[in-house]
From TrEMBL:
It comes from the Bacteria. This is 2-keto-4-pentenoate hydratase. SUPFAM superfamilies: FAH. It comes from Sphingopyxis witflariensis. Gene3D superfamilies: Fumarylacetoacetase-like, C-terminal domain. InterPro entries: Fumarylacetoacetase_C_sf, Hydratase-Decarb/MhpD_sf. GO terms for cellular component: cytoplasm. GO terms for molecular function: 2-oxopent-4-enoate hydratase activity.
Length: 263
């Protein structure tokens, strides 16, 4: 995988910001202009951060660019996971002065890696070991990263800053469970996993394609953060997000400033 000559400058700036926990004034230039360059920069940054890949997050390509790019989704590596204890809100680390959002998602644990591309949800489900409710913490040191989606988002490790993993959800109907979200007690969104493009198993199929295209490497046991169910909700340090999955599962997290690696 190769990147443009200036990719190393982008990676160096993002790496220093993530290691120090300090926000950047703006996304470092030049922003990648192709998906190939963006994923190449992501790979370099992920390797430089020196963390094992625990999973993959999925995001959406802006609708006006879907036709020209030939992709509806984008992917980024997950380098930090934590379990929610069910009693107290988990800690969601964000870059103060950067861009931050919380996303409520279903997390699919990969049983094994398909040796071929997958055409159906039924087949995709056979590769899922378990499903859990959770939060994706989306945060970047660059305050304007969303202005450069999908290329800036992809390059900055998908702007993923960790997953918070809650209780298991029944595999039988996990994609139809109703989910609602509050931030500081204010309702901000409702949805079902099946409403995110072609659903969570569509996210898995997308990642399998990227794997077989040589863009990413899937491994058994990795988590797949399958897409924002109720929306991408901006959040500031000190705020608390709460998500209700059906009637039985309720999870919460409070944002704190990211002080940099290592954790």
């Amino acid at each position: 995988m190769s990147a443009s000559p200036n990719a190393q400058d982008i990676v160096a700036a993002l790496l220093e910001a993530r290691l120090s926990g300090q926000a950047l004034p703006a996304f470092p230039a030049p922003v990648p202009a192709t998906l190939a360059d963006a994923y190449a920069a992501q790979h370099k940054l992920r390797v430089a951060l020196g963390r094992p890949v625990l999973g993959w997050k999925l995001g959406r390509v802006p609708p006006p660019l879907v036709a020209s790019l030939g992709a509806t989704r984008l992917a980024g590596p997950v380098l930090h996971c934590a379990d929610l204890d069910g009693e107290n809100p988990g800690e969601a680390r964000i870059f103060v002065g950067g861009a931050s959002a919380i996303e409520i998602e279903v997390m699919l644990r990969l049983r094994s890696v398909p040796d071929h591309r997958i055409d159906s949800d039924d087949e995709a489900l056979t590769y899922v070991e378990e499903v859990r409710a959770g939060f994706e913490v989306a945060s970047s040191p660059a305050p304007d990263v969303f202005d450069y989606s999908p290329f800036g988002t992809i390059a900055d490790v998908g702007i993923n800053n960790g997953l918070l993993l809650g209780p298991q959800i029944d595999l039988a109907d996990f994609d139809e469970i109703e989910v609602s979200t509050e931030i500081d007690g204010v309702h901000v969104g409702t949805g079902r996993p099946s409403g995110v493009l072609d659903g969570p198993l569509g996210s898995l199929r997308f990642l399998v394609n990227l794997h077989h295209d040589g863009v990413i490497t899937l491994e058994p046991g990795q988590w797949i953060s399958a897409g924002a169910i109720t929306g991408v909700h901006p959040i500031a340090a000190g705020q608390t997000a709460t998500a209700q999955f059906g009637t039985a599962i309720r999870i919460a997290c409070t944002t704190i400033p990211d002080t940099g690696y290592p954790r």
